Amino acid sequence: MALHAPVLVLKDSLKRESGAKVHHANIQAAKAVADIIRTTLGPRSMLKMLLDASGGIVVTNDGNAILREIDIAHPAAKSMIELSRTQDEEVGDGTTSVIVLAGEMLHVAETFIEKNYHPTVICRAYTRALEDALAVLDKIAMPVDVNDRVAMLGLVKSSIGTKFTGQFGDLIADLAIDATTTAGVDLGQGMREVDIKKYIKVEKIPGGQLEDSKVLKGVMFNKDVVAPGKMRRKIVNPRIILLDCPVEYKKGENQTNAELMKEEDWQLLLELEEEYIKNLCAQILKFKPDLVVTEKGLSDLAIHYLSKAGVSAIRRLRKTDNNRIAKACGAVIVNRPEELQESDVGTRAGLFEVKKIGDEFFSFIIDCQDPKACTVLLRGASKDVLNEVERNLQDAMSVARNILKNPKLLPGGGASELTVSATLKQKSSSVEGVEKWPYEAAALAFEAIPRTLLQNCGLNVIRTMTQLQGKHANGENPWVGIDGRTGDIVDMKERKIWDSYSVKAQTFKTAIESACMLLRIDDIVSGIKKKQAPGGGAPKQPQIETEGDADTEQMIPE
Fold first, then answer.
1. Burial profile 13-33: b = 16 or more Cβ within 10 angstroms, e = fewer
2. Can you say whether residue 407 is alpha, beta or left, with left for phi > 0 and alpha for psi between -120 and 50 degrees?
3. Is 212 annotated in the active site?
4. CA angle 119-107-528, nearest 5°?
5. SS (H, E, C) 278-330
6. Is 290 labeled as catalytic in the residue annotation?
7. Pick the catalytic residue: 60, 95, 180, 375?
8. Pairing mode, if any, of strands 333-334 and 240-243?
9. How far is residue 370's CA from residue 372's CA, in Å, rounded to a whole number?
10. Residue 366 DSSP code
11. 359 with 30: CB under 8 angstroms?
């Protein structure tokens, strides 16, 4: 037994060394990802120009949009990129902050890994720091009245002030608030749910000025009526019927053979087809519609009957567009014309109109009474500008949605992080055992956000950070932070620099939980088989395993 003991000790030390190497590699990869987008935080941030997979150019400072285009092989870096996507899907903003914060959390943990602290101890301290940080946020949060448009406008404006469209001031904020209040659904108890993906469509049309952008009280889609000469292109107060079925003769699902003995039988077959379509149209026309929209096809005969009755028709519309029309004008999508009822007809639209913009025709169903879906029409100089405006608008709408869902505000400009950091530093003295040091390090990591803001402003970071820490250390005013445009130390309430509670809380949770996950990884095992090069010659000679290879556990070929 005495002979084997040294071998066991050697293996254990090798394993520990292997774990430390993996931790170090993971932390370096995470820091590399954070450094890529660190310069895009704040109103004075830099833009990145990216070449996407299809060879197009993307110019943006949105964290998620940048990381989405980057191809990275390291699994820990891929995990970091996933964070920004999660943040974007969950709350729609704070995609850069979450990466910077997670990178800093891992950076401060590196010292403890080198001192042989167990990752579980560090994670326990981080989890405790997260709970205390969220408690601090709850304490300094300020309620907001969602019906106060000025307060809402200020909040959305300060959230998109860091973006490219921040230079256009109120325009994007106005569009975002109008769109989210239009498509919002009351859940009771002062809460509203807004489904941005389903019921708010952003239509980008190059040309015109950005100031021409507007939120329509209804919907628009890229379609024209099926018979432009015969059907009306403008109808006031239209009665709208929405269908989810073809208005044409049903074709057999399989190949169908019909044997006709007489010439009259062929005529009879054609008459039956015509009669079938005539009945379908009669069932639709019974409700005196002005506009019929179907997701499927319309036969020439059906078009003839409908145009003869003075009804405009649109065919092969997307399912999502049809759902939006139903929400806007109060219609119900019907699967079979024979099941139509008066209550299925949409009557809340004020105007149906087809307009030509550029080279294409667009149908507008607008001036709806209390629409529950809308279209945001964006105009701009070029496609690149429009794409960036759309990304910023999505963020602004997400912020507005978060406020409607959870109407609480927090100070922006790094003030929240500094307050959390100062409170955690004070609390660290009451933490017992070895967890005290990682807990204190987590408190310091929160200062990464204000520090990065200062760096991007081009100010003296050390001097300004020392002043800020001094103001927050005695807890006199948790709303003191940095004005990202001028770099001044000011009260965030006076400058109206705010953050949404949902975004900030989600940023802290995502950053710390992911840092804990990456710290607990002690080995990376590849499941990808390396392909042998074609004509790869004779197999290699068997190799004798040396002491240095003990970690890689190379197999000797048979």
1. eeeeeebeeebeebbebbbeb
2. beta
3. no
4. 70
5. HHHHHHHHCCCCCEEEECCCECHHHHHHHHHCCCEEECCCCHHHHHHHHHHHC
6. no
7. 95
8. parallel
9. 7
10. E
11. no
Residue 188: pLDDT band with limits 50, 70, 90: low
User: Which amino acid is it at 406?
Assistant: N
Q: Which of 60, 88, 93, 96 is catalytic?
A: 96
Q: Which helix H or strand E contains 82, and what residues bound it?
A: helix 75-90
Q: Is 551 a catalytic residue?
A: no
Q: Helix (H, G, I), strand (E, B), or coil: what is residue 209?
A: coil
3-state secondary structure 484-540: CCCCCEEEHHHHCCEEEHHHHHHHHHHHHHHHHHHHCCCCCCCCCCCCCCCCCCCCC
CA neighbours closer than 13 Å in the CB half-sphere of residue 130: 22
Strand partners, 411: 498
Residues belonging to the chain: 558
Q: Please, is 432 exposed, middle or buried when counting C-beta atoms within 10 Å of its C-beta (0-12, 13-18, 19+)?
A: exposed
Tokens of 267: 């005529």
* Tokens matching residue 491: 């009260």
Between CA 558 and CA 546 the distance in angstroms is 18
Count CA atoms within 13 Å of residue 432 on its CB side.
Answer: 0
Region of residue 344 (left: phi > 0; alpha: psi -120 to 50; beta: else): alpha
Structure tokens at 391: 């990304």
Mean pLDDT of the chain, nearest integer: 84
Phi, psi torsion values for 477, nearest 5 degrees: -150, 110
Q: Is 379 helix (H, G, I), strand (E, B) or coil?
A: strand
Helix axes 75-90, 5-37, angle to 10 degrees: 50
The torsion region of residue 373 among left (phi > 0), alpha (psi -120 to 50) and beta comes to beta
Residues whose CB falls within 8 Å of the CB of residue 437, separated by 6 or more in sequence, listed in order: 112, 125
DSSP character at residue 116:
T
Beta strands 489-491 and 498-500 are unpaired
Is residue 501 pLDDT above 70, yes or no?
yes
**CA–CA gap between residue 475 and residue 491 (Å, rounded):** 14
Question: What does each C-alpha distance from 489 to 94, 391, 448, 459, 486 come to in angstroms?
Answer: 22, 30, 17, 12, 9
Q: Quote the pTM value.
A: 0.78
Annotated catalytic residue, options 40, 62, 375, 499 = 62
Catalytic residue flag (residue 95) = yes
Q: What share of the chain has pLDDT > 90, as a percent?
A: 39
The pLDDT tens digits for 388-434 are 888 888 888 888 888 888 888 898 888 999 999 999 999 998 888 89
Cα 321 to chain centroid, rounded: 20
State the CB neighbour count (10 A cutoff) for residue 130: 20
Q: First vs last Cα of the chain: how many Å apart? A: 32
Q: Alpha helices, DSSP H only, in 92-209? A: 95-114, 119-140, 149-160, 170-183, 196-199
DSSP 358: T
Rounded to whole angstroms, the Cα distance separating 523 from 291 reads 63
- The active-site residue, picked from 395, 419, 423, 510, is 395
